[in-house]
Amino acid sequence: MPSNLARHFLLSEDVVFLNHGSFGACPRPVFETYQAFQRELEAQPVAFLGRELTARMRTPREAFAPYLGTSPENIAAVVNATTGLNIVAQSLDLKPGDEILTTDHEYSALEKTWAYVVRRTGARVVTVEVPMPLVSEAAFTEALLAGMTERTRVLFLSHITSPTALVFPIERAIAAARRRNIITVIDGAHAPGHIPLDLDALGVDYYSGNCHKWLMAPKGSAFLYARPQMQGILNPLVVSHGWTNQSKEPGAMGALGNSPFIDEIEMQGTRDPSAWLAVPAALAFRKEHDWDAVARSCTALAQETAARLTERTGLAPLSSPEFSAPQMVAMPIPDCDPLAIHDALIERYAIEIPVFKWKGQALARVSVQGYNSPEQMDLLVDALSDLLDLARPLSQAMS
User: Fold this and answer.
1) Residue 161 CB contacts under 8 Å (≥ 6 apart), including other chains
2) DSSP per residue, 238-303
3) Which fold, 4-27+290-397?
4) pTM greater than the 0.90 cutoff
5) Which of 171, 315, 359, 366 is most solvent-facing, going by the fewest CB within 10 Å?
């Protein structure tokens, strides 16, 4: 049975939900706060969106910025990390022959974003193969350094990878890029609420992360961080009331009273800002339930589950433990039709989990959140064993 924390979530009891990493799950009290903002908006839309919104949008920035290791002036609300990273990618003044250095573990939507930028600018993407299994920070960093040339203009990395669920040790690579005047852009979609962040100390130029995943805020809440010296080159994807024709130097005033960076990105026409406004409620929920302790338990359960499946498959993990995302593990499984396995898990066991191939290797990516339980992990390991015809350990087979 799920742990008693499951009662705080809205997830269907008919599904064993082991896929928090894809879209997250919002706790009931946070979702109720979100809906309260929506009702308040509908009760007086002109006051909410016309007279009060600038001040309202500031409150989540002030609550969230210390959690990110920066100041409220360095983050702007966006609807998801893909949007934030598109703002950056489409703002960069790239020329034919310029290089965007990245890895073979990136999220497909962002691979398409850079392909679009390449088609428009004549730049090119250079993809580094990360040494696998990932067991050494030095090997990871050296592979990236070897890919840097005098033509490298951008270093684009995931902090936590989506397909392989690895935590990339990005600190030294970012520092090396900074010394070479290479712009650093980090996809932090899975990072907030999952791993500690100190963005100012990291020294990154641009970083975008989702709040709707591991932070457990409602869908439609995310942020874009920009180092103060790099804010001025950004352009909004939509030009609206927040746009200004004035100076974008640090300290300049935007059209709505914030910096141009914040005003231009946050004010892009009528939309529902309630998800972003509920971010402080998500932070409060985490604090009330000591979510750091919950996360430690989830991490232990995720790693234990991966180890049990490894024992049955005999397949080596993708990384040593320190490079595995704490609550999310991509577990190698024998060659199979991943869609058939995924569908069978849903239809026969009511288990929601992604199963796919990455570079020819079949993977099942399990997420463990506070609403999950050891019994659910037992069910997953046994279900995969049945579907993949895996032998159980002798001690279990004889019991």
Assistant:
1) 105, 106, 107, 168, 325
2) S-STT--SS--STT---TTSS-HHHHHHH-SSS---HHHHTHHHHHHHHHHTTHHHHHHHHHHHHH
3) Aspartate Aminotransferase, domain 1 (3.90.1150)
4) yes
5) 359
Query: Which phi and psi (to 5°) does residue 89 adopt?
Result: -60, -40
Q: Terminal CA-to-CA distance of the chain, rounded, Å? A: 22
In degrees, to the nearest 5, what angle opens at C-alpha 222 toward C-alphas 40 and 157?
A: 175
The answer to whether domain 4-27+290-397 and domain 44-284 are alike in fold is no
Per-residue pLDDT tens, the chain, 399 aa: give them.
346 899 999 999 999 999 999 999 999 999 999 999 999 999 999 999 999 999 999 999 999 999 999 999 999 999 999 999 999 999 999 999 999 999 999 999 999 999 999 999 999 999 999 999 999 999 999 999 999 999 999 999 999 999 999 999 999 999 999 999 999 999 999 999 999 999 999 999 999 999 999 999 999 999 999 999 999 999 999 988 888 766 666 666 655 667 889 999 998 889 999 999 999 999 999 999 999 999 999 999 999 999 999 999 999 999 999 999 999 999 999 999 999 999 999 999 999 999 999 999 999 999 999 999 999 999 999 999 999 998 666 555 444
Domain covering 44-284 assigned CATH 2.30.30.60 in the classification: no
Distance (Å) of CA 236 to CA 186, 224, 262, 272:
18, 12, 10, 18
- Choose among 83, 300, 326: nearest CA to 211: 83
Alpha-carbon distance 170 to 166, whole Å? 11
Cβ–Cβ contacts within 10 Å for residue 7, how many? 10
Which two tokens mark 138?
Answer: 């030095």
DSSP string, 25-94: --BHHHHHHHHHHHHHHHHSHIIIIIISHHHHHHHHHHHHHHHHTS-GGGEEEESSHHHHHHHHHTTS--
What are the CA-CA distances from residue 170 to residues 6, 130, 146, 209 (Å)? 34, 12, 15, 15
Which helix (H) or strand (E) element contains residue 152? strand 152-158
Token pair listed for 305: 């589950």
Are the C-beta atoms of residues 21 and 367 closer than 8 Å to each other?
yes
Q: Where are the domains of the chain?
A: 4-27+290-397, 44-284
Alpha helices in 161-228 (DSSP H): 171-179, 199-202
Residue environment code for 55-83, b if the CB has 16+ CB neighbours within 10 A, otherwise e: ebbeebbebbbebbebebbbbbbbbbbbe
